Amino acid sequence: MLRIGLYWEEAFPTVDATPPALNALRRALEGFDLRVLGFSDLERLPALDLLILPFGSAFPMLGWPQIVIYLQAGGNLLTLGGTPFAVPCTRQHIVWQAELRQPAYHQELGIRQYATVDGSHIPTLEASREEPILSGLREPIRVERAFEAILWPADGQAPAAHTRDRVVRPLLYGRDASGRLVAAPIVALDHVDGEFAGGRWVLANLEGRLPRDAVRRLAFYGALGASDLTVTPSFACYFAGEQPRLTVHATRLGPLYGRHAARVSVTDPNGVQRTCELPPVSTGTAPAYRSTQCDGALFGTPPLPPGLYTVEATLVDEEARDLAARLRIPPAASPGLRRHRNGFWVWDDRLATGASTVTVADALLHRDGLPHFVLGTSYPNPDPMADSLADPNPHVWDADLKAMKEAGVSLLRVGTWMDRRRAMPEPGLPDEGYLRAVDALILTACKHDLPVLFTLFTYPPEAWDGANRYLDPRTVAAQQDFVAALISRYRQVESVLWEVTDTPSLLAPARLPEVRPSGDPYEEHAWREWLSARPEEAVRADWRATPRAPLALPSPADFTEQCLQVAHPLKVVDYRLFAQEVYQRWQNEIRNFIRVRTPLPALAADGGGALPPAPATTVELAYAHAHCDDADLLWRALLARARRQPALIDGAAGRLSEGPDRRPRVGDAERRDALERVLTVALTAGCAGVIRPAWGVNVPCNGAVSLGLVRDDGTADPELEALSAFSRFVERNRQHLAGREPEPAVMVVPQSGLLSPGSLAIAATQACVQAFHQASPVGLRAVNEYTLADLGEARLILLPAARLLRQEAWEALLEHVATGATLLITGPIDEDEHWQRRERLAELGLAAHTHPVAREESVLLEGRPLTLRFGGDKPYRVDKAVLVGRPAEVTVVPHGHGRLLFAPLPFELADSLEPLVALYAAAVAYSGLPPPFTLAGEAPGVLVRALWCRQAVLYGLISQCAEDRQVEILHGAQAVRLTARVPARRAVLLLVDRDTGVELDRHPSD
Q1: How far is it, in rounded angstroms, from Cα 386 to Cα 401?
Q2: Cα torsion 323, 324, 326, 331: sign
Q3: What is the pLDDT of residues 402-456, one digit of tens each?
Q4: Model-level pTM greater than 0.85?
Q5: Do residues 782 and 685 make contact, with C-beta atoms less than 8 angstroms apart?
Q6: Strand ranges (DSSP E) for 907-986?
Q7: Of 616, 588, 581, whose CA–CA distance to 602 is shortest?
Q8: Would you put residue 11 in left (φ > 0), alpha (ψ -120 to 50) or beta?
């Protein structure tokens, strides 16, 4: 008989749960060997098959060490209500008292946080089909609140839900009004390995009512202990004439021993089922492990018809079934049954070659001839500490991709992530099982009409024991072997886009994301060759180096900022150019290797405009990493678009945030709203789409935890709701979003400043983007200093606090101004990328010299004085231009058919944006650009961004404030009034006819 220990103390606090009654619990547990344990009994727990804690979130604090020891020994646990181990309780004499709620206790057990789902959002409850222990209850379970566990181990090293140590088994699901799974109020965690191996924790994470029948069933289920069953095909995909082979592995760690009947059934694409009985599995002792195989007779004579096959293994515990019957648990609840489903594909050439194609053109992705705003996710697992494609399950993939398609996901980013060495252990010897897993995933994506963006290298590219990842010929040859092994299989699959890498990293992977030398012989040789293109005297002059100074790679000291330089920081300028050129050359080599072997697109990616480019940069895809606030996101999006290629926002929203007390700072609603804002910024900034880092896993991300769109228990995170609604809006308006027009105002990204150590160029461009959108409704885009041919017909050009600029770029800007444009320059501009003096202002008739700024400066703008303040260490880092014989004023200098506006102070680096906003407003007026729309009244804290298309205009209203705002827009020359209420920290989209201003659609709908 199963031994149950029920913790009970009279007047013990109950938190987040219905107060229990001891007599009711005794009746619910009739038939078990029940022991009621007091606080003193926790000091030496008797031998138990299950420990029950019935007081919701409350637990005895002084009993915590003994409870942990019990769980570490493989003990089974049932908690009734609340969030387990959240509220420690102490006893003062004979009175129990609840202490401060804190997550530290359950975090030691690998439960990082809990999210709350209101019961009004889950009108329907249903028992899990996979674990039907709660099916057919005589009385219903009532849920007023459900608590969703977010799993992550205390050491933060690997997501617990990803490993084989712990298997999450939902027992009860909650659906919202649309039928989507949004909560799992009762789950079981089976620990089949690791610190708590053998233990099954059944967590009723809810506030509401659990009937006695449910308590009895959960107690029985929990007392059975952890178990696991897997069925694995020898390959995830087979080809004509091949015979599948299946392996079944059973793990039994519970208290019941005996014989178990096992079988495997396979269902073919036409629904025909074949069954194979396996030899009985005997488990006379615990733990018990059993592996067995079935093959040939199950499948008949090959060849098998193409398509997806479902494989199901079942293990029936007869002793558990007999015991369940004595405890009045109905057979339909199947308490003695363990099942596992997997699948495999037989290659379907018609399906693979018939999928729709995504093309790259006009800085956008297109599908079916119309712009395709990507709402993508990484899959199956971008986590560098998990197996990813090396542990395939086509049955799960099929269910996940079906759910993705229904939710509005429109692209799958697949990558080898950290599995490249497993995919090809040795150069030229790819692992066939791994490649078959890729086959299966590609076919599953084709089945659900999801294009695939396949990322070949990231985190950084695999070296295969070479000395340098980009320059060692042996390494590059091995990388090409790896690429060839993949692309050769999918030459005719037009739904696949090949991407060389999604994370441009330079030469030293150990110090990502910094650009530092690795110092190997290949890099040293390439560095010397790169320098030899210039006379040695010119190089030394650029570095301010004496003839005795070596021309070797930069040292670590060269990258640091010092008041008195003892190194050669200007050497860093050349090294960063060299490193980026090496990286681009390697990327182009891999891309060209792909293009000569397949007609499918091969894309070279770029990490965004903030990286210094090579002089001749060729990329087809850019990424803006969205681990930032909204204002920073718009800046990143514009910089990613700076080279006229599709830009994708990567890693948007979905991050856990905790305070010093380890409690969550950001909840589900806040993360949902953050994703809504990210999507709105991305679309109205002209980006090609957004890619969330993960579908259904939690992944480490820049020192934080990024959550998937689906939780560990398979239920939908509220972010998925935001993505689905946004997807529906974009899909029904694709024809209106065609023919996008470039913005008439341009910010030049001063890459020469970014090359230099200690540069403030990033801060300057960030302030430029933020202030310009406050100053004017005129659309703004970005262009890199190295790619000024992309200026197009820009009427207004902003050069924000550049200080350094290549001479070629300066001449290109003057040439463009002469055609009739207006160029605004702030701060000194008389040095090139190596800080060599160039008399640019003197050539324009403005004699000037450079001097550090004071803490408070004044400048005249159209006769009106403006005050700029420079706090902190800025007087030691920021310079101004002092005009000889002129007051400090914004000066207009005619040039050809255009004009230059020169502000001697670097407005973008001042402490306040107000003077910069006034300056930009004046620059817009000088340029003669008419406002495309105006705001009727003020809308503080709301960013309004407009995307102008051939037939329509899309307005994005993004709230950055804590209150709701009523926004009124006067559209076009007719000043058609558009109104929208923007909820606090939410976003609204308004789509209107370009000519008439008639509203065509809005999101979210009123």
Answers
A1: 20
A2: negative
A3: 999 999 999 999 988 766 778 899 998 999 999 999 999 999 999 999 999 998 8
A4: yes
A5: no
A6: 933-935, 942-948, 952-959, 965-971, 976-982
A7: 588
A8: left
